[in-house]
Amino acid sequence: PEVHIATNETQRKRRMKYLEPLLPSAESRILDVGCSSGFMLFPLAQRGYECVGIEPTVSFADYLRSRGLTCLDSMTSLKQEKLAKKGFDLIMHFFVADQTADAVEFINEQIPLLKPGGKIIFEICSTNDPMISLQIRILRQVYMGNCSKLFFLAEIFSFNDERIWIAVRHN
After folding, report:
1. What is the pLDDT of residues 94-107, one digit of tens each?
2. Which end of the chain is less enclosed by CB atoms within 10 A, N or C?
3. CA-CA distance, 131 to 135, in Å (whole number)?
4. What does the alpha-carbon distance between residue 118 and residue 55 come to, in Å, rounded to a whole number?
5. What pLDDT score was predicted for residue 22?
6. CA 123/CA 43 separation, integer angstroms
7. How would you class 130 by CB atoms within 10 Å of its CB: exposed for 0-12, middle for 13-18, buried for 19 or more?
8. What is the pTM for the complete model shown?
9. How many angstroms separate the CA atoms of 171 and 168, rounded?
10. Which of 109, 135, 129, 134 is nearest to 120 (CA)?
11. By the 8 A CB rule, do 109 and 75 touch?
């Protein structure tokens, strides 16, 4: 895990450039779905955020827990925990939505986990990816009515050909 963290430092810094102005106030709750080694979560936890990760890879999940972060193996496990009932101010995932069998359902199952005004921030694969048009079409379904509790602040931001989507839950 330490090698993975070091290897992804450039990614972390790139993401923080757009995450920084969108982060909730300190002591807010952040969920990282598919958090891998926790390279995004550890710096946020050090800043006072209550961070929770979802990671099915046992070695990464064990590493996060050994370093004091809450890490569960699935969304199903999270929903069974009391900590899900408190809601999250920010849910983030990077290159996960476009790897799921049903991206719309994947996003829909996160909406009830958001506090009012909470944000979902996610990246999908590079615009150079041959599947990008399919991924965009699927994700467009999310904000064309299938996720009525979300208001999309921005459809797409582009950073080095990565696609970043930002959505906010309204009441």
Report:
1. 878 767 777 777 87
2. C
3. 6
4. 21
5. 82
6. 19
7. exposed
8. 0.79
9. 10
10. 109
11. yes
Closest CA to 115 of 77, 147, 83, 86: 86
* CB contact at 8 A, 32 and 92: yes
> Could you tell me which of 88, 171, 93 has the C-alpha nearest to residue 139?
93
Model pLDDT, residue 144: 46
Alpha-carbon distance values, 148 to 5, 31, 71, 113 (Å): 36, 21, 29, 15
Query: Where does the pLDDT of residue 18 fall: very low under 50, low under 70, confident under 90, or very high at 90 and above?
Result: confident
pLDDT tens, position by position, 132-161: 555 555 555 554 444 444 444 444 433 344
Query: How many Cα atoms are found within 13 Å in the side-chain-facing hemisphere of 142?
Result: 28
Name the pLDDT band for 58 (thresholds 50, 70, 90). very high
Q: What DSSP string runs through 112-140?
A: GGEEEEEEEEEEE--TTSTTHHHHHHHHH
DSSP summary character for residue 26 = T
> Rounded CA gap, 161 and 126, in Å?
5
